[in-house]
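pasting Flavin-nucleotide-binding protein for the record, 263 residues
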Amino acid sequence: MGRYELEYPKEATNLVKRHGERATYALEKIHSLINSSQLLHVSFNPPNSPFPVILPMIGQMGSFDRPSASLGDPLDLYIHGYVSSRMFNVGRTASSGESAEGMPVCVATSHVDGLVLALSAFNHSYNYRSAVLFGHATLVESHDEKMYAMELITDGVVPDRWRNSRQPPTGAEVQSTSILRIKIASGSAKFRDGGVIDDKHDLENEDALSSVWTGVVPVYSTMGKPIPGPYNRVELPKYASEFFDEFTTENREQALSAANKKD
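structre below
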């Protein structure tokens, strides 16, 4: 009997209304998308500011209490930054007090997998994968949880990089870094894949069919050839080279699969 797939509850906050058939609320799909993103965009409302703030951050989903939890399980999102930055100062204040729920945040990420070029400008689109999470951020105070989060985030950049870097972190490095743990309240993801979709009247327009190129242009990120630093003395390790190759291969296959998807 298969394992039941957990989903975020559909609420007014996270419900996808436009093209709801493209939405998913499955934890595993959303968490996988978050963890495969090089950048997350985190928004919050600073006190006494007329505008919300959106910052590009590095983060990873995991569970300090259950390190073996899978991506399909409930997880927290950890993000890190400089100890005195505005976001972390607001998060620190929101974490104080026994009843403090934390700083409300919204986290978004997206991948573009292709340009969808149709006959009409109206029907142009992207093949894409996007996710949005809503939650409350509190400052991580425990040293052990802070080390867990720093390792989690570092290995999210290049798997196994933490233990293959200079260890342990110095006291100054630890003191200058703050970690926010975001307890997720809800989330959703939205995907678009497949080819061009044109209206019937355009498909009957011989002038347009004879003069306008249509199709999908795959778009994907690649890892270039590593360039050693000026004082590097080490050959590129296997764990890194394998990840760089897999990164490019997986992104290319994702883009091609999306472009060739049949309805």
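Residues 238-259 form the longest helix (22 residues).
The mean pLDDT is 95.
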